Every structure is written in structure tokens, then in C-alpha cells.
Amino acid sequence: MNKSRKEELLEEEILKNLSGKPLQITEYLLNDKETRAFQEYANVVSIKRLGYNDHGPVHMRKAALNSILMVTLLTKAGVRFDLEKEMGYSHTDSLAAIIMAALLHDIGMGVSRKDHEFHSAVLASPIIARALSLFYDDPLVKAALHALALEGITGHMATHPVTSLEAGVVLIADGCDMERGRARITTMLSKQPKVGDIHRYSATAINHVEICQGDEKPIRISVEMESTTGFFQVEEVLYPKISNSPVKKYIELFANKRGESPLRYL
Prior knowledge:
There is one protein chain. The protein is α+β, with helices and mostly antiparallel strands. It has one domain (5-264). Helices cover 58% and strands 9% of the residues. The protein has 12 helices and 4 strands, in the order αααααααααααββαββ. It has helices spanning 5-16, 20-30, 33-49, 57-76, 82-87, 91-104, 116-135, 139-154, 165-175, 184-189, 197-205, 231-243; strands spanning 206-213, 219-225, 251-257, 263-264. Strands 1-2-3-4 form a 4-stranded mixed sheet. The longest helix is centred in the N-terminal third of the chain and has 20 residues, at 57-76. It is globular. It starts with a helix and ends with a strand.
């Protein structure tokens, strides 16, 4: 399974922003053949069989990169993650759990769209255990990171409540991957109209999503779109995920059609 150039570029960007155990675990998963196989098959089912957007290797790498950007901004602002507050661990341990969740959160699409987050957790759990066993010794640390990663996976659809900041990051990072490239292949393959096409066409309208430091809060998410169709993605996909995330209080959300003033949602 050869990696695409887009995957390689994303991996370069991901790795240059990491160090220590998060870097070790990420390098391991990015080169793990079983992880890559589950990601690839999830995308085959998502795009070719079901006609959905990208849910494969590129999307999961984008979710990981978005997560890293958010963790960096939150840490810079002095925000303490739940592992640090409850267990006295480092924010780098939280980041390791977040990245594992982001890189594995959609592999359950290979089983079924319905409840795919829970199928993802079942498939991901042994991979997570294997990765943790290589880089951590303390059983309690491994248990905490394993559980947090599974919370991030099962909670990424905003249909199952998440209570940790760590899982809340994964939830929003997943929602932020909605630029037009994610719907490109599906749009090329299917020209027949069907219920649910608004997801495809609204995603195609999104030009750019930027995650950066906010003016009033640690994180600003800015969505620029080509047409107002893209507001569907913001209001029906991204906003509900932010609203159901414990990270919401740290987020500024803006959206605009290109050439027009941005609207502020949060």
C-alpha cells in the first residue's frame, strides 16, 4: 500500500510539530501496516460503496494535524488537560492519546457507517494497546491513555457525550476537516442525485479552514467558502461538534463567503 503524496506531506507536517513520546507513537502508527490497512479499507467502503466523503488515511492524518495545532494553542494559553489535573501527568501524555484517537477514529467505516465510531473502537483497541506497550511501562499510565483514546474515538460523532478535554479536541479536529478536497473523489464518481448530497456539495464549497490563535480565546477557527452552500457544513457539522465538546469555551468560530465579512458563531 503506497502512500499518496498528500499523505506524505501531511505526515511531514505532523512529525515536525512533535517530540518525545507523542512523536514516537505517531511515527509508529504512521508506519504500522495494520493501521494503514484499516484506514485504506475504511475509505474504500466510505467512498466506493457508500458514496461518502473521505474517511481514510488522508482524513485521519488531517484530524491528527488539527488536533496537534489545537493542543499547541491550548497549552500555550496555559490550559491544563484532564490527565494533568486528575493524574498529574504531562500534557504530552494527553497529546499521545489524542493522536492515537485521531489516527484511528474512522477505521470502523470499514464495518458500517451506522455506529462506526464504536466499530472503530473495537478495531483500534488492540492497536492502541500494542503501541502503548512499546513506549510506556506504567500500567496505570497505559490504562489512562488507552481509555482516553477510546473516548476520543467513540465520541467523535457528537452522538455520545465526551467529558475530557482530550476527547473534545478529537471531536473538533475531526469536524474541521471539511475543505473541498475531502469530497472531490465522491463528487467525481457519482453524478446521480440522492438524499444527502448537501453534505457533498457543501463540503465542495469550503475553500479553507484555518486553526490559529484567537483574539479573545486560545483558538480561532476560520472557515472560508466559495458559496453560501458551505454554511451547511459549518452549522450542521462543525458547530454541533464544537457545542458538544468541553473545548467549546476556548473556541472562537468565524465563517464567511470569499470576499465578504466573516460571521461570528462563537
